[in-house]
Structure formats: C-alpha cells, structure tokens
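Take a look at the protein record below with the fold in mind.
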Amino acid sequence: MNKTRQLHDLGQSLWLDNITRKMLDDGSLRQIIEKFSVTGLTSNPTIFDEAIGNSDAYAAGIREKAKAGKSGEALFMELALEDLRRAAGLFRPIFDATGGRDGWVSMEISPLLARDTAGSIAAAAQVRQQADQPNLFVKIPGTPEGIPAIEESIFAGVPINVTLLFSSEQYLAAAEAYLRGIERRVAAGLDPQIGSVASLFVSRWDKAVSDKVPAELRNRLGIAVGQRTYRAYRQLLASPRWHKLAAAGARPQRLLWASTGTKDPQAPDTLYVEALAAPDTVNTMPEKTLRAYAGHGKLNGAMDADGGDSAAVLQRFAQAGIDVDALALQLQRDGAQAFVKSWKELLKRIADSSASLAGAGKEAA
C-alpha cells in the first residue's frame, strides 16, 4: 500500500508545505496531490520569497501589476492569492467531499503585524475577502497579541491557521481563543462551523539545542514537545466544554505539525513524520520530506494519546540545563523575526524586479 495513504487511513491529513507558480503551471502540484494523498497546502513568506526569486514565472505578473500602479505588499498579495486561488481550486473537491474538514490552503498576513492585534484582525478580514475562496485559511501567529486577533477573527467567521506555536501552553492559548470565538458565535445564533488548525513547529526545537545536549538527547526534544501537545489536544477534545460546542455543530480545530523536515543531516529524513503519526491531526511537510516518507518511511503505529514518554524525556532535558518554557518563548520570537526578514526580502525582491522590468520595457520601446 502507498505509504502516504497509510497515514491518511490512520486519520492524519498530509499537506504540502510549498507552493510555486511553476508547480501550478506544469501540473506537478496536481500530480503530488494524486500520487501522495495530499489534501491541503500551506505557504509562508519564506516559501514565496524563494518561489519568486528562483523563477521567472512571476515576471509577467509583476510587470502587469506594477504598470497598474501596484507595489509593495499590495502587489505581493495579488501575486500570492493568484497562486493560492488556483491551488484552492485543485483542493476544492476534497474540501466539498469532507464537509470542510480538509482541502485547505493557507495565506499569511503580514509578519509585521505579529505584535499588532487590531492590525491583524483587519488584515485577516481583508485577506479573506480578497481571496474569495471558502477553503482558504488566513494565518495569524499565536503570539500574545495574536491570540485576541484569532478569537475576533473566528467570531467574525474568518477561518484561521494559527501559526508559530512551539509548546503545549502556546497551543492551549490558541485553542482557547478558537473556543471563545466559536462560543460567541453560538451565543449570537451564528453558524459555528468555522475552520481552524493550530500549527505546532517541531524541528526547530532540536536545531536550537543540538549543540547544548548530550548525543543521546539530540533530535528528541521536538517530538517530546509534540507528544505533550497532542496529549493536551486529546484532553481538550474529550472535555465537556468541547462536547457542548460539538453538539451545537462546531468543527474541531485540528492540531497541525509544522516544520517537520529534518534539520540534522545525521538524523533520518523521515524522523518527524514517523514519530508524529496521529489521528485527527495534519502534517504539513516540504516536498523533499513527503517524497522521502513515500519512498522509505515506516508507519510504526499511532502516537500515544497520553503523551507517551514525553514527561520523562522533558525531565532529562531540564536536567541537561534546557529551560523548555523559556526556549518556547524564544523560538516564537525568533520565528516571527525570521518571517519579518523573509517578508522584507520578498518586498525588496518585488520592488527590484518591478524596477528592472520597467527599465527593460522602456529600452524595448
């Protein structure tokens, strides 16, 4: 049996953590969907920066939009949403067949808004309206300022992918925001079926401590944090509070594993995919990791709902001098800053390209 199909049959959705216009134009995204049981897609500023920088597929679009007076974020948003609308169309049959549980694509609001609650709320509504696709998530980071923006956006009916979560505590804050938003919709007599996922970043944990712990602890922290978070997720889904919302017609906010490509070249390239096999979750992975698992991955059973040995493993990291709580906050801050860096590089790339194309156009004339 197809190895990726086995994960799908276990109850886990596999999403691709990548998008390029070339993949849409040459049909390779459609092939990936069909071959590897891929049922969704995520994007971020770094992905788009690389896509635009490594291809001339966007040149015509940049030239056309620049001629129309578009620049900066407005130009980029139009470019990105053109790609994501096409991808959303490919996933729409899955979205319809699963009643909106699956078949999503994701678009990030400006990373410059990570500490701006009001700005994030307004941007999420704008992206949702501009995209005009029922199966598009708007990504808002789970920063302290992002949490109230997530609640307000859910209440407003905007499907949200909560990004940049690094711990069970950060996950629970995002889950609480989702629950509050849905509870407010129920109280107001509004449809409670607003889609959402909560994205926990995994491999960055191990990269952060790779030179700070004994060899036997390397590449174990991200999985342990994932296990502990999955336990919190399962407990929330078993709670009376959730059962009440489910009875009212609400849809669970699924836990999503992000950053699942192995960073350590000495570790198995399918490490996180195998360890994080779990029902009612999503694993979004780079194409390289997806193909690696399809080629030689192993399904070793589902993750333990009780957190497995995570408590013991995390205790060993504490004994090795790793303050997991402090590191979770640092990773979230670093992740937000990395997206800001990619965002600024992306906008500079587009500005440079617009100027270059405009100059080339004048010479040709």
Observations:
- The chain has a mean pLDDT of 95.
- The longest helix spans residues 324-364.
- DSSP finds 16 helices and eight strands in the chain.
- The longest strand covers residues 136-141.
